[in-house]
Every structure is written in C-alpha cells, then in structure tokens.
Amino acid sequence: MNIFTYHTYKQGITYIQHWVFAMRIAKRLFHSVIAFTLHAVFPFIDINRELDLEATARFLNIQNDWIENMEKPGNTSLYVQHN
Known about the structure:
Blueprint: H1 6-11, H2 15-41, H3 53-68
Helix pairs in contact: 2-3
C-alpha cells in the first residue's frame, strides 16, 4: 500500500480530508503560539478569547472527536466538521 494513503485508509478518510484536517489544526495552533508568544514578551497584550487555552482545548477535542468517530477502514463519508 502507498505510504501516503496507508494511514489515511486506516483512519477511514481520504488523503485530502487528512490534509485539510491536519492543516486546520496546524493553523489554529500556529495562531495560538503567536498569541501566547506575544503575550509572554508583552504581558499587556491580551490573548484573544478564540485563541486562549480553553478555546484551543475545546477546538482540539472537537477535531479529535471527529477523527475518532470516522468509520474505519475505507469510510467514504463526506468531510464534515463542526466548530
């Protein structure tokens, strides 16, 4: 089996679904890292509530629930995520 599709097949999603899923998490974490880094250096800069620890943990839990609830293997369901 192809190294690019083996993991995604086991997860029950397509390569594109996996890419979107992973990039969405990376984007969110990147924004949180920038916000926390700025706040660490400049404590007077507040962290946006959408990027704080509680909101980020909630976001990650929603993403995890979505991926954990996919049918495995070979799920052909549409890519649907809720925020």
